[in-house]
Amino acid sequence: MDHNSLALPVGTTLDRFIMRKQEDFPYATGELSQLLRDIALATKIVNREINRSGLIDIAGAYGNRNVQGEDQQKLDVVANIRFIRALRNGGEVCTIVSEEDEEVIQTGNNQGKYVVAMDPLDGSSNIDVNVSIGTIFSIYRRISPTGTVGNEQDCLQRGTHQVAAGYVIYGSSTMLVYTTGNGVNGFTYEPSLGEFFLSHPNITIPASGTVYSINEGSAESFSEGLAAFIAHCKKQSYSARYIGSLVADFHRNLLKGGIYIYPATKKSPSGKLRLLYECNPLAFIVEQAGGKSSNGYTRTMEIEPTGLHDRCPVIIGSKELVEKAEEFLAAEHSEAPIVNS
After folding, report:
1. Are 306 and 325 in contact (CB under 8 A)?
2. Which one has a higher pLDDT value, 8 or 193?
3. CA neighbor of 247 nearest in space, from 330, 139, 136
4. Which site in 121, 275, 325, 333 is 20 to 30 Å from 41, CA atoms measured?
């Protein structure tokens, strides 16, 4: 055996990477770095619970509904508890917005400089069938005075004010992907060492792609422009790929190129996905990776939130595909024909 192979480096850990990159952040005093570590810790715990859920009876419905009117799964509740506890104990966050709670969550850390909006467990309807699920988070600097109790206005900021955002995908491997506005990097969890290691540095989404992700079961509710775009995708022989877990669909398209669409429909006229803790963080990530996100007409991160659980349509992914979809939507309201290319 080559003696040198025995001493190959394991890789760069998430903690070490965060420390090295701290100087890239304009408010580099250490709090954001610690906050990202707190999120990583909660991720490890949730990953453990997911991996053993079938053995200790924490899969399945919990019996309650969340603020969205959706049936809560047991792991929804577990993930929510774990992330709130980690953020509260870390001391850097004054206020939390969670998909699972109607009102803002006060951590008691009035000196905390940050607020976090999160979907603790995205795609929970797929838990029982062992399909990839995820966590999505968004981080803002508070706007209320430090030392006071955080409030709802701290959370109702445009996506352009995010200082960091990320997601975790719990799949064949567990990955944490995040940005602080200086590119996108992905880390894969090594369970035997209990560490995340840099596995996908400087992620860049392909400018175009041949995958479209949309629930075509709602096709009867699509607008004329959207229906025309989907017909265009089929004419181009694009592949339809739709898992039903936002993180999983987004992650595939981020790495391989493609477009994800959750439009307004008759059933959900404002769209279904939540602006603060689903659309905005993924929009921040995709833009940092060279892609694009909009509601079809307006850049996602420029939409003004009015409530903690606002919904909005989203078209997100490779820049050229998003812009083509926007062309079809714009043509719906004009006489201009679409030139297929």
Report:
1. no
2. 193
3. 136
4. 275
Residue showing tokens 């976090």: 116
CB atoms within 10 A of CB 105: 17
- Cβ-count burial 63-99 (b if 16+ within 10 Å, e if not): eeebeeeeebbbbbbbbbebbbebbbebbbbbbbbbb
Q: Which residues contact 208 (CB under 8 A, 6 or more apart)?
A: 257, 318, 319, 320, 321
Q: How confident is the model over 78-109, as pLDDT tens digits? A: 999 999 999 999 999 999 999 999 999 999 99
Q: What is the pLDDT of residues 216-246, one digit of tens each?
A: 999 999 999 999 999 999 999 999 999 999 9
| 246, two tokens | 């936002």
Predicted local distance difference test score (pLDDT) of residue 139: 97
Distance of CA 229 to the CA centre of its chain: 25
